[in-house]
Design brief:
This protein has 206 residues and is mainly alpha-helical. The protein is built from 8 helices and no strands. The chain is globular and about 80 Å long.
């Protein structure tokens, strides 16, 4: 949560990519009318535990992903995580603009899966920084956008691009700091022998 010592360009990417995706595909729906308003919304989302970014990523990326990456490749672990995250958000898609609309249900499910790959990739490349993932999600949440085929296509292209062009990182072992340490079995007490007992504890032979 406080791993902030990463190179500056990771901050630029974490903040800039969501702005580029949503700002470039749905400009009329931006929630802010000024930079000050946007920064205020972003700051609140960054620290609000009841909101999506801070409420979700300590669990998804801080526990679930490192746990799975301890025994699976980042690609396999992220694919499982993406299905879990998208399934978790599925009920909210029924609340978006009238329920059973394929452009909302399908696009919402696929977009959520695609964004999960982006967050996992960012998490792994920053040595396990939840802070950067929360910041990236907070930027995205600070922009009001309508779920649809266009936004789905762009995020899907981002996810596919990350997997294709950085496939070595996805298929190899997860970087240090992004996996849970293996759980050690409990120590079994050594059998007690008479030699390990004090003279007062040794049995009296009659």
């Amino acid at each position: 949560m406080i791993r902030w010592r990463v190179r500056w360009y990771w901050y630029a990417l974490a903040l800039g990519l969501p702005l580029a995706v949503h700002g470039g595909t749905d400009v009329p729906s931006l929630t802010f009318t000024s930079l000050t308003t946007f920064l205020a919304v972003f700051a609140v989302r960054l620290v609000n535990p009841a909101d999506g970014p801070l409420g979700e990523h300590p669990g998804w990326n801080g526990v679930a992903l490192p746990g799975m990456q301890a025994s699976h490749s980042p690609l396999v672990a992220t694919t499982v995580l993406a299905l879990l995250v998208a399934g978790w958000h599925l009920p909210t898609f029924f609340l978006e603009e009238g329920g059973l609309r394929p452009s909302v249900l399908v696009a919402g499910f696929v977009t959520t899966m695609a964004v999960t790959y982006w967050y996992a990739w960012l998490f792994n490349h920053t040595g396990g920084s939840i802070l950067l993932v929360v910041a990236a999600h907070s930027v995205e949440r600070s922009i009001q956008y309508e779920l649809g085929w266009l936004i789905m296509g762009v995020w899907l292209a981002v996810a596919v691009g990350l997997v294709v062009f950085d496939r070595k990182a996805w298929r190899g072992p997860a970087p240090a700091g992004t996996t849970m340490p293996p759980t050690l079995p409990p120590k079994v007490a050594a059998p007690t022998t008479s030699a390990s007992l004090s003279p007062e504890q040794r049995p009296v032979v009659q």
